[in-house]
Amino acid sequence: MHTHRHLGHRVVAALPVVLMLSGCGETGPAATTSTTAAPTTAAPAATRPSVAPAPADPVWHYEGEEGPANWGKLSPKFATCGAGRAQSPIDIVNPASGADPGVTMQFAPAALRIAHHTHVADGINNGHTIQVNYEGGDTLTIGADKFELVQYHFHNRSEHTVKGAHFPMEMHLVHKSAAGKLAVIGVFIESGAHNVAFDPIWGNLPKAKGEETHYPSVQVDVDALLPKNRTSYRYDGSLTTPPCTEGVKWIVMTTPIQLSAGQISEFTALIHDNNRTPQPLNGRAIATDVIGTR
Q1: Mean pLDDT value of segment 113-128
Q2: Considering its fold, how many domains does the chain have in total?
Q3: d(CA 229, CA 4)
Q4: pLDDT tens digit string along 152-187?
Q5: For residue 289, what are the domain limits?
Q6: DSSP state of 20
Q7: 17 lies in some domain
Q8: Beta strands in the chain (DSSP E)
Q9: CA distances (Å), origin 68, targets 76, 200, 210, 246
């Protein structure tokens, strides 16, 4: 899951997509030699303190020496990717029933409020995913914490698995609270009927890394992107991309949505194999629950 707001994470990349602009130190014109004698008392030249450029984040990928197995070794910033004990994604096996208070009491009730209105969205191809940045007022409330949807993005194959089985794709809807906490709704995507809810974005996907697509007055109906069945798996995890920050509230919908084979192919022609393998559960609880609406 990406947090770029990019998301990150309007949903176009991810997580808000964060665009990194590196400042360039430019040199001025070469100094010329003066033939005029310098005065005996010269005013001292004004000096400007030197400011070192901020170090760039390490490069990471989904394959090779910079792939997921080595993320934790690429930089101290990414150490949690290797040393964390509550990492995502996970393989979902034998979740506890929502009727089991011994487990579900660990998970505060969750409610989703969806705002239906026209707004402007931006799609970003950041090389790791295609992310849609979103500012539509949708909120996810978990207990006393209120999270706003900032972006959604996609993975191929799915990052979470169910009893070891992948889905062709997975969508992550990244929500952020005013205090900076993160909550993500994961939605499995299977091959099936054409999904018209994705047409406004899918019709003009940003094709090259770094490319942005501006969607003026696009009606993004988040309700239409989600399955009608709001039963979910709940667990505590992390970001699925560096820096793999933990403390993320995960709500993974049990019922997949469908995209047509053609729609899936349109995405995978641009981005594919951008999934981290499931991580050890390390004793964490998984519960089934229903997202309420309000």
Answers
A1: 82
A2: 1
A3: 28
A4: 999 999 999 999 999 999 999 999 999 999 999 999
A5: 64-293
A6: P
A7: no
A8: 91-92, 110-113, 119-125, 130-133, 139-142, 145-155, 161-162, 169-177, 182-191, 212-218, 231-238, 246-253, 257-259, 287-290, 292-293
A9: 15, 32, 22, 16
Task: Please give the structure tokens belonging to residue 233.
Answer: 């798996």
The CA distance from 83 to 81, in Å, is 6
- Segment 137-153 shows an average pLDDT of 94
Residue 129 belongs to some domain of the structure: yes
Mean pLDDT of 98-115: 77
Is residue 141 a part of any domain in this protein?
A: yes
Classify residue 269 by burial, with Cβ atoms within 10 Å: 0-12, 13-18, 19+.
exposed
Provide the sign of the torsion angle of the four alpha carbons 127, 176, 280, 233, taken in this order. negative
Asked if the model's pLDDT at residue 27 lies above 90, the reply is no
| CB of 119 closer than 8 Å to CB of 10 | yes
Q: Which letter does DSSP use for residue 69 in this model?
A: G
| Cα–Cα distance for residue pair 291/216, rounded to 1 Å | 30
CA distance 121 to 231: 28
What is the enclosing helix (H) or strand (E) of 267? helix 261-268
**CA 20 to CA 4: how far, in whole Å?**
10
**How far apart (Å, rounded) are the C-alpha atoms in residues 247 and 226?**
24
* 111: helix, strand or coil: strand
The enclosing domain of 154 has a CATH number of: 3.10.200.10
Q: 122 - beta bridge partners?
A: 133, 214
Phi and psi, residue 255, nearest 5°: -100, 125
CA distance 215 to 294: 28
Query: Does residue 101 lie within any of the structural domains?
Result: yes
Cα 274 to Cα 57, 76, 153, 200, distances in angstroms:
19, 23, 11, 23
Question: What is the four-CA torsion angle of 91, 94, 96, 102, rounded to 10 degrees?
Answer: -90
Helical residues (DSSP H) of 107-205, grouped into ranges = 199-202
